[in-house]
Amino acid sequence: MSKRSSGRSHPRCSFTQDEDNFLVDLVAQFGDDNWNTIASYMESRNPRQCKDRYTSYLSPSIKNDPYSEEEDNLLKQKYEELGPKWVRISRFFHNRTDISVKCRWAVLNRRDQKNKGKKLYKDIISQNEVLTDQTNEITEIKSHVENTESNDVIFHEKNEMRMNDELEPNSSVIDMIFPANDPIESTNWDVYNSLSLGNLKLHQPITGIYNLYSFD
């Protein structure tokens, strides 16, 4: 095991698996409070990087078990109270680091956003179904109104034709009363004026033309 040469840069890239294994061995040899010595053996890593990597990810005291429902609820509660203060929030958890609770919050937040998206989608689908039902109902009402109006027109036309047929004078009856070869004498108009044919009454002609008036 050799120390690294001084003066090298300290890259911010992720630790490799070999670096993690080597760091664990160094901590086992020198303890978890001697980071300057440990960093001197790590290639391109400073004491702060070694300490953060070990205490946040590699320490056996870190609890890596899945979060329980109680822990998730506590995390949501503390986030509402404190905001993204991950170090302070981690103090409310047993063997959970600030990095751990931060990552867990990101998972919970993505899950909540996904559920909200699903709920919004279902609400939109439900509203579209309601609008479709309303549109179909309006179409049915419109069709019913149009059919009713059409039937009313047909009814009135038929009724008007029937009334015209009833009001049209019967030529055979008129011929019987006023024979063509029997001219009407002027002295007989009083008799004819009082003569009624159903709902028709014959009145004295004007300029030689018989006028028929209907009375309802």
From TrEMBL:
Q: Which GO terms describe its cellular component?
A: nucleus
Record-annotated HTH myb-type domain positions: 7-62, 68-113
Q: Which residues form the Myb-like domain?
A: 7-58, 59-109
Tell me which InterPro entries the record gives.
Homeodomain-like_sf (IPR009057), Myb_dom (IPR017930), MYB_TF (IPR050560), SANT/Myb (IPR001005)
What's one Pfam family here? Myb_DNA-bind_6
What PROSITE patterns does the record tag this protein with? HTH_MYB (PS51294), MYB_LIKE (PS50090)
* Gene Ontology molecular functions: DNA-binding transcription factor activity, RNA polymerase II-specific; RNA polymerase II cis-regulatory region sequence-specific DNA binding
Q: From which domain of life does this come?
A: Eukaryota
Can you name this protein? Myb-like DNA-binding domain containing protein
Its source organism is: Tritrichomonas foetus
